[in-house]
C-alpha cells in the first residue's frame, strides 16, 4: 500500500504487482501511488522476491494518488510506462489490449466514470480484476466523469463477474470478494441520488448550488468540490434521461 493516506485516498492506494507464479519472468505494477523512495524500493523488492522483473508500470487512472511514482518506478527499473491512450511521458494502451507476462496475459478494459480515462485490468483466464477507483469495498467512490458512463461501466463489470467466483482488487481498501453485491449496492446508491435530483427538479430546485445544499447540507469546504462535480454529473444525467422520455 502506498504511504499516501488522505480523506480521499482512505488508508492509502493499493499497489498491485501482477505476474506468473509458475514461470516467474516479467511483471506489471499497477498504481504505484507514491514516489517515496522507500515505497518504490519495497515494490522492487516484492517483485524480486517472486523472481519477477518489472517490465511494465501502469495506472488505473491519472489521479495523483495513483499516478505518483509511476514515472519514477519506470525510470528506476527500465520498465515501460503505460497509460490509457498515452501521455507525453507514457506509451498508450487501449481497450482490449493485452499485456504479456510469461504464461499469463492481462487485458485492459476501459471503465470510465470515476474518470474518463479509468481502466481496469483483467487477468486473462481467471476471475480476478483490478478495478482502480471504479468500485471500492463498502465505501463510496467519486464520479468525476460522466454518470452515464459510470452506470454503463457497472454493467460491464457485472457481465465480467456474474455467476463466477470473481474477485475485484480495488484502488483503495479491502478486496471485494462479492462483486455482484457490491455492484448492486453501487448502482442503488447512484439511482437514489438520481431519483432525489428528479424530485428536487419537480419542486423547482434546479441549480447546482440549490441541489448541492439539499443533498449535502453542511458539507465542509474540503469535500465541496467533489460533491459539486458529482451533482453536475447527476444534473446532466437527469437532463439526458428527460430527453429520452424517462
Spell out the blueprint of helices and strands.
Blueprint (H helix, E strand, L loop, with lengths): L15 E5 L3 E7 L6 H13 L2 E7 L5 H4 L2 H8 L2 E5 L6 E3 L4 E4 L2 E7 L8 E5 L4 E5 L14 H15 L5 E4 L8 H24 L5 H8 L5 H23 L3
Parallel strand pairs: 2-3, 3-4, 4-5, 9-10
Antiparallel strand pairs: 1-2, 6-7, 7-8, 8-9
Give a brief rundown of this model:
Helices cover 39% and strands 21% of the residues. The chain is globular.
Report on this structure.
The protein has 246 residues and is an alpha/beta fold. It has a domain at 16-178: Metallo-beta-lactamase, Chain A, CATH 3.60.15. The chain is 39% helix and 21% strand. It is built from seven helices and ten strands. The chain has helices at 37-49, 64-67, 70-77, 147-161, 179-202, 208-215, 221-243; strands spanning 16-20, 24-30, 52-58, 80-84, 91-93, 98-101, 104-110, 119-123, 128-132, 167-170. The strands form two sheets. Strands 1-2-3-4-5 form a five-stranded mixed beta sheet, covered by helices on one side. Helix 4 (147-161) packs antiparallel against helix 5 (179-202) and helix 5 (179-202) crosses helix 7 (221-243).
Features:
Metallo-beta-lactamase, Chain A; five-stranded mixed beta sheet; alpha/beta; 246 residues; 10 strands; 7 helices
* Overall pLDDT score: 93
Q: CATH homologous superfamily of the domain at 16-178, by name?
A: Ribonuclease Z/Hydroxyacylglutathione hydrolase-like
Principal-axis shape: globular
Count of helical regions:
7
CATH architecture of the domain at 16-178: 4-Layer Sandwich
Strand percentage: 15-25%
Percent helix, as a range, is 25-40%
Secondary-structure element order, as H and E? EEHEHHEEEEEEHEHHH
Secondary-structure-derived class: alpha/beta
- Strands, total number: 10
CATH class of the domain at 16-178: Alpha Beta
**Model regions low in confidence, pLDDT < 50 over at least 5 residues:** none
Widest β-sheet, arrangement of strands:
1-2-3-4-5
Amino acid at each position: 500500500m502506498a504511504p499516501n493516506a488522505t480523506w480521499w485516498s482512505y488508508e492509502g492506494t493499493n499497489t498491485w504487482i501482477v505476474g506468473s507464479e509458475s514461470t516467474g519472468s516479467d511483471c506489471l505494477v499497477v498504481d504505484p501511488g507514491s514516489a517515496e523512495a522507500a515505497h518504490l524500493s519495497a515494490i522492487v523488492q516484492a517483485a524480486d522476491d517472486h523472481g519477477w522483473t518489472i517490465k511494465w508500470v501502469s495506472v488505473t487512472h491519472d489521479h495523483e494518488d495513483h499516478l505518483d511514482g509511476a514515472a519514477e518506478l519506470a525510470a528506476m527499473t527500465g520498465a515501460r510506462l503505460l497509460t490509457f491512450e498515452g501521455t507525453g511521458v507514457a506509451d498508450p494502451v487501449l481497450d482490449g489490449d493485452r499485456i504479456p507476462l510469461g504464461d499469463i496475459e492481462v487485458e485492459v478494459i476501459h471503465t470510465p466514470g470515476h474518470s474518463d480515462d479509468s481502466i481496469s485490468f483483467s487477468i486473462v483466464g481467471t476471475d480476478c480484476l483490478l478495478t482502480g477507483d471504479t468500485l471500492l469495498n463498502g465505501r463510496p467512490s467519486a464520479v468525476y466523469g460522466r454518470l452515464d458512463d459510470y452506470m454503463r461501466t457497472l454493467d460491464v463489470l457485472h457481465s465480467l463477474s456474474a455467476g463466477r467466483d470473481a474477485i475485484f482488487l480495488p484502488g483503495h481498501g479491502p478486496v471485494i470478494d462479492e462483486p455482484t453485491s457490491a455492484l448492486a449496492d453501487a448502482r442503488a446508491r447512484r439511482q437514489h441520488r438520481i431519483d432525489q435530483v428528479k424530485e428536487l427538479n419537480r419542486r423547482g430546485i434546479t441549480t447546482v448550488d440549490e441541489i448541492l445544499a439539499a443533498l449535502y447540507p453542511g458539507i465542509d469546504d474540503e469535500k465541496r468540490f467533489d460533491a459539486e462535480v458529482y451533482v453536475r454529473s447527476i444534473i446532466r444525467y437527469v437532463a439526458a434521461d428527460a430527453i429520452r422520455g424517462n
